[in-house]
Amino acid sequence: MLGVRLYMLQRLTALIMAPLTLGHIAVMIYAVQGGLSTAEILSRTQGSIWWLLFYGSFVVAVSLHAAIGLRVIVHETLGLKRPALNILTLVVSLLLLFMGARAVLAVTLT
Amino acid sequence: MSANCDELEVSVWRGDRLSGHFEVFHVPAQDSQTILDVVSWIQQNLDATLSYRYACRVGMCGSCAMMVNGVPRWTCRTHVKKVMNGNKLEVAPLRNLPVIKDLATDMDPFFDKWIAAEGLHHPTKTRDEPIETINPDSTMRAEANAGIECINCSVCYSACDTVAGNVDYLGPAALQRAWTLFNDAKDSGQNAILEAVSGAGGCHNCHSQGSCTVFCPNELNPMKAIAELKKATTKSFFKKRV
């Protein structure tokens, strides 16, 4: 249940996620080294268009990538077929997008 | 098989996939005995109603594949002593295919997928034109040659866990055939092939688990052919959008 379009979308989102994940890990290591407080972290992220773009693009990539991966697993293990499979993919993608966007906006909006 | 073991205990699947069961037969052990020898001996000496399929007996026709001790094998070229579990053997119909009766499977889904993958000849010339000259040293010819010895036995299809979980998946044999024809200078179906293997059951469903390559009796590499199809479809995907 994976045509070339979904396959490419999953690979391209993986390409986006890889450097962003490394960037996230680097930031986490940096943040804990000096013992940054929550207030100090928020003072840097709130109002920053760069952190919004950094984590925002990560959330978009994850919501597409994970939904496609789950689609394959559900089809092969539970036997769910289209159109229910398409609906599940869309719902999972939108749910991840909503949850991720909510978290990103919470730390980047002033 | 040990030297003093003169009898094999053979469990053979009887009936269809849903209502069948294993039936035990005792078969005299012989030197250089193949699985097909064992099955034939049972059919000729113990139970004439046992259904199974074979033709050439020399690994050419791809008719006699069965599950032997849980593993898909070409039975005419599989020696009993190499696959014995103690003095026991279990022979069952190929996995991932409907069972007609006993050890005979319905191969229609397997061959239908060859057609669905455009694994059929798309001629480049008419009969009135001279035959295409083939350069045996070309890269594309080498790719085509790599898969051309497929005997359609369905061992790879039976071994594939992706086929087991996704009935629409075209499977390793059909996709390898598609890749072979894609590289054949005498075939004009490149675009049709890429289109066919890019659908919902196409090459992108392969998880590269490699069972096809591990179990192929002719030591072909369908997993590589599928990986090459993924590359070709990826190139085509971007080319269309440039």
Automatic annotation (TrEMBL), chain A:
<keyword id="KW-0472">Membrane</keyword>
<dbReference type="Pfam" id="PF01127">
    <property type="entry name" value="Sdh_cyt"/>
</dbReference>
<keyword id="KW-0479">Metal-binding</keyword>
<feature type="transmembrane region" description="Helical">
    <location>
        <begin position="12"/>
        <end position="32"/>
    </location>
</feature>
<protein>
    <submittedName>
        <fullName>Succinate dehydrogenase</fullName>
    </submittedName>
</protein>
<keyword id="KW-0349">Heme</keyword>
<comment type="function">
    <text>Membrane-anchoring subunit of succinate dehydrogenase (SDH).</text>
</comment>
<keyword id="KW-1133">Transmembrane helix</keyword>
<keyword id="KW-0408">Iron</keyword>
<dbReference type="InterPro" id="IPR000701">
    <property type="entry name" value="SuccDH_FuR_B_TM-su"/>
</dbReference>
<keyword id="KW-0812">Transmembrane</keyword>
<feature type="transmembrane region" description="Helical">
    <location>
        <begin position="52"/>
        <end position="73"/>
    </location>
</feature>
<dbReference type="InterPro" id="IPR034804">
    <property type="entry name" value="SQR/QFR_C/D"/>
</dbReference>
<feature type="transmembrane region" description="Helical">
    <location>
        <begin position="85"/>
        <end position="109"/>
    </location>
</feature>
Automatic annotation (TrEMBL), chain B:
<dbReference type="Pfam" id="PF13534">
    <property type="entry name" value="Fer4_17"/>
</dbReference>
<feature type="domain" description="2Fe-2S ferredoxin-type">
    <location>
        <begin position="8"/>
        <end position="95"/>
    </location>
</feature>
<keyword id="KW-0479">Metal-binding</keyword>
<dbReference type="InterPro" id="IPR001041">
    <property type="entry name" value="2Fe-2S_ferredoxin-type"/>
</dbReference>
<dbReference type="InterPro" id="IPR006058">
    <property type="entry name" value="2Fe2S_fd_BS"/>
</dbReference>
<comment type="subunit">
    <text>Part of an enzyme complex containing four subunits: a flavoprotein, an iron-sulfur, cytochrome b-556, and a hydrophobic anchor protein.</text>
</comment>
<keyword id="KW-0411">Iron-sulfur</keyword>
<dbReference type="InterPro" id="IPR050573">
    <property type="entry name" value="SDH/FRD_Iron-Sulfur"/>
</dbReference>
<comment type="similarity">
    <text>Belongs to the succinate dehydrogenase/fumarate reductase iron-sulfur protein family.</text>
</comment>
<protein>
    <recommendedName>
        <fullName>Succinate dehydrogenase iron-sulfur subunit</fullName>
        <ecNumber>1.3.5.1</ecNumber>
    </recommendedName>
</protein>
<keyword id="KW-0004">4Fe-4S</keyword>
<dbReference type="InterPro" id="IPR004489">
    <property type="entry name" value="Succ_DH/fum_Rdtase_Fe-S"/>
</dbReference>
<dbReference type="InterPro" id="IPR036010">
    <property type="entry name" value="2Fe-2S_ferredoxin-like_sf"/>
</dbReference>
<dbReference type="InterPro" id="IPR009051">
    <property type="entry name" value="Helical_ferredxn"/>
</dbReference>
<dbReference type="InterPro" id="IPR025192">
    <property type="entry name" value="Succ_DH/fum_Rdtase_N"/>
</dbReference>
<keyword id="KW-0408">Iron</keyword>
<comment type="pathway">
    <text>Carbohydrate metabolism; tricarboxylic acid cycle; fumarate from succinate (bacterial route): step 1/1.</text>
</comment>
<dbReference type="InterPro" id="IPR012675">
    <property type="entry name" value="Beta-grasp_dom_sf"/>
</dbReference>
<keyword id="KW-0560">Oxidoreductase</keyword>
<dbReference type="Pfam" id="PF13085">
    <property type="entry name" value="Fer2_3"/>
</dbReference>
